[in-house]
Amino acid sequence: MNDDIKKRTQETAKKLWTGGVKLDPPYLTWKEFDKDLANDLSMFITGNLYSRTVLTLPERQMAACAMLAALGAADELRLHVNAALNVGCDPRKLAEVFFQLAPYGGMPLVNKALEVFREVLKGRGEWDAFTKSGK
Q1: Residue-number span of the structural domain to which 62 is assigned
Q2: What's the pTM value of the predicted model, to 2 decimals?
Q3: Are the C-beta atoms of residues 10 and 51 closer than 8 Å to each other?
């Protein structure tokens, strides 16, 4: 069972965290404090939760981005916006998710999420294509 979870963790992590902007995942910080706990957390989050098939990885990333934006968690949002783009989320839909925060969290959260989103798109070299693709 542990080998299966480890394999799923590695496969899912590769899809999410490889490519796009170079960002250090929180796992690296966790590892500095407790390597065994970091591995357990990674296997649970990435190997068990993120590898579930009820939601696709793009759907799961859209949900994660919405929640992190609503929390104002800019650093985590940066990581998950990049991961969302890595797994094929439509950038226009991500922008729409962030605008959807307005009636629930307010414009300061919308603004912060859009700033993070723009930063990630620029870092990936995708900002110009996004702005030219239509609104």
Answers
A1: 2-132
A2: 0.90
A3: no
Give the total number of structural domains in the chain. Answer: 1
How many residues are there in the chain? 135
Span 8-26, average pLDDT:
89
Cβ neighbours, 10 Å, residue 130: 18
CB of 109 within 8 A of CB of 69?
A: yes
Hey, is 34 helix, strand or coil? Answer: coil
Q: What are phi and psi for residue 37, nearest 5 degrees?
A: -65, -40
Amino acid at 123: G
The amino acid at 83? A
Distance from C-alpha of 109 to C-alpha of 97, rounded to nearest angstrom: 12
Confidence of residue 25 (pLDDT cuts 50, 70, 90): confident
Say what the pLDDT of residue 5 is.
87
Report the CATH number at residue 47. 1.20.1290.10
Nearest CA-CA partner of 42 in 84, 74, 6, 87 = 6
